[in-house]
Specification:
Strand content: 15-25%
Strand order of the largest sheet: 1-2
Helix content: 10-25%
Order of helices and strands: HEEH
Structural class: alpha+beta
Shape: globular
Distance between the termini: 27 Å
Number of strands: 2
């Protein structure tokens, strides 16, 4: 599956973007599912572009079958200024 969403932000650009993926029925409020149970759904590529240029760096390329996803984890901590600190993200 592939998804492209154009013109997500109009006006001022946000400083941070955090993406979390949950099952559709959990998102829509099924009591048996938690909207806080995030899953990777074998996502292998994610990027944000402004005027055709990737920001803040090249898109993340992940491979969960080969346990190659540390760049996504690192990006979460570096983007929230928590890299190297002994504290959580409080998301």
């Amino acid at each position: 599956m592939s998804m492209v969403q154009d013109n997500v932000f109009v006006g001022q650009m946000p400083k941070r973007v955090i993406v979390g993926c949950v099952e559709n029925d959990a998102f829509h409020g099924t009591f048996q599912k938690s909207p806080f149970e995030f899953k990777h759904f074998d996502m292998n590529f994610i990027g944000i572009y402004v005027d055709g240029q990737p920001i803040p760096h090249n898109p993340l390329e992940l491979n969960f079958d080969e346990n190659n996803y540390i760049k996504g984890y690192y990006s979460l901590f570096s983007g929230t200024d928590k890299i190297g600190q002994d504290q959580g993200l409080f998301l």
